[in-house]
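Support request, please re-run this one:
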Amino acid sequence: MKPDSLAEYRSGAYSASTFWPDGFEKMGKKSLALDYYQATPYDVVLKPERCQGAWAEHFGRQAPLHVEIGMGLGEHLIQFASAHPNMNHVGLELKMHRIYTARQKALRRGVRHVRYVLGDASHSLRAFNREEVDRLTLLFPDPWSAERFARRRLTHPEMLQIYATLLKPGGHLHFRTDDPDLFNYTCHHLTAFPFNVNISVLRTRVLTDFEKRWLTLGRQIYGLDAWRH
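Re-run finished. Output below.
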């Protein structure tokens, strides 16, 4: 049995398993439709513009706002949220089945201060107002190595301008990649924006699943932290 409305779901009469059955993360296929369920859970955002300036209300508390762009299956986001319970965390992801998987992980681990926005980065970043974000995390994005695809890179100057606009003064951009060309490209273009940049990869950090695999193969990881002026 499923609720007739989102308000009915929020009333608590229905458990999370009504929407997210055990083993659902193994069903992640492109063919999964948005209307697989009769209502969208309260913590999944499909229309990001409605959240601008309203994240404190959405979380039910005022707290620093962390946004992870392209969270994938959510392992890093959930671990980071567990380690930083005094922040509100938002994961942006293009594929709905990955949001399903991440949300199921978070529920199983009791991590409730996470929300999810469906869409590509340029679309889902509309969920945030100017100077609303305290931390942006960008981990192992597609390097789009061919020059004709440069504008698709998530560290293209147009995207860096968006990040600089959304971050508060003193806000933090954290970036990691295994691609040296993308790293050099990013470092070069960051100089045109109001950031103080520190190039380093901390030994004590939350690893993504992708990063763990690459490290076992001996691949080098490149990283930086940038703080907005």
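The chain has a mean pLDDT of 85. The first strand starts at residue 44 and ends at 45.
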